[in-house]
Amino acid sequence: MGKDVIVACDFNSKEEVFSFLDKFTEEKPFVKIGMELFYAEGPEIVREIKRRGHKIFLDLKLHDIPNTVMKAMKVLSKLDVDMTNLHAAGTAAMMEAAIKGLTREDGTRPILIAVTQLTSTSEERMRDELLIERPIDSVVLHYAMNAQKAGLDGVVCSPLEAKKVHDICGNSFVTVTPGVRFADGELGDQVRVMTPAQAKEIGSDYIVVGRPITQADDPVAAYRRCVSEFVG
Ligand code: C5P
Description:
With about 230 residues, this protein is α/β, with parallel strands linked by helices. It is built from eleven helices and eight strands. Helices cover about 45% and strands about 15% of the residues. Strands 1-2-3-4-5-6-7-8 form an eight-stranded parallel barrel, surrounded by six helices. Helix 9 links the parallel strand 7 (about 175) and strand 8 (about 205-210). The longest helix has 14 residues, at about 135-150. The protein is globular, with a radius of gyration of 17 Å. Cytidine-5'-monophosphate binds near residues 10, 34, 118, 156 and 210.
């Protein structure tokens, strides 16, 4: 699996996202489109960014009954994205249905990864509100194994979990890690962070980087710095 930097385009209009992407005259970064932009602009934004030559991670985190997820994934498969995701909490039946829906007639499909536990969910909340009593690390790894058994390609996880996921699920199981910051950069609301170089060291396959690039004075230079630290 090719290592790459995915730029989280957390904008809420196509004008903003295009004025950002227009700055890139030489590279075509791998772009993450999340709920904010997708719900604001609809599927056409995916087609337009794709037409500009970018790879796309469509981060919609599906979680519903298997039949609904299968049908939704079938629609997404026609958008020709390169990567998309769902919540592993939807169970193996939902994940298997998702793969079925996502697989195109020619047998190809986007990379499908699972969210295990959101990094915004603390161990305490998981125990008190979700009634999951195990330590969060073992829950994350167990969900990763479930995703692998269901045939998914990998998980979204913190860079701190990527090594453990690879140890248990193997190095070809993809780890996509947000929470990346430059050593001299601002943390924003991220708490457990790593630099691109550390994420490389620990074996992340893809890093998802938003504000350190999108809010930089020179986003292209920040992107290049990220690529050179992470991909080398
Ligand atoms: O701006 P920043 O680099 O913090 O953006 C990180 C991106 O990764 C955002 O789009 C955020 O929603 C996403 N993400 C995250 N933590 C997770 C899952 C996704 O920060 N556990």
